[in-house]
Design goal:
The chain is mostly helical. The protein has a single domain, classed as TorD-like. It is globular and about 40 Å long.
Amino acid sequence: MSSTNGTQILKYVYALIAELWCSPPEEEEKREGNKKNAEEVVKKLESIDKEGAMMLSSFLAENDISEEDYVDLFELNPLCPLYLGAHTYDEPKTCAGAGVSDRNEYMIDLVGIYKHFGRKPDLTELPDYFPLMINFLSLTTESKDDPVRDKLIEEYILPFLPPMRSRLERLKTPYLHLLDALERVISIEQKMQPLSKQREQKVEDHVG
């Protein structure tokens, strides 16, 4: 398998994972179409990583969530917010506090990263909306040698996943399999193209 083919597969997989975190469609026909597409992507992933494909398959096999249950889980007064920073940073008590909060700085940094790649984030969602962040990984997969993308993964995604994992474990939801699959796919990408010393220096220079 060439690195180009592997990159294209990861692009599809990230896009699928991002879509699966979103609210499932109400129409049965669309659900079936999405399921068929998901199965095709899983087959592609299996060609480069059987374990990651099994994780995604486990989620697809167990996930038959209704729109009502999805809303209870992730929306309105959610049991597990789909905003990554919300699991780490406390909500500010005042409007003034929101402007100087750690989560606000986190989101400002994310916007800067999105703009670095010439992409404006979806203004209907906050920058740390989890499906948006994963979809951004799909959109930038071919830029995987860019140190800013490394920074996004290493500093703005991976360190923020454990609190979300803890919440999903307590809720005993199949979405834990989907988080497992995401972490696995990120590790696959990192193994396909580990940071070279030169790229590590570029990251340090960019941060500095």
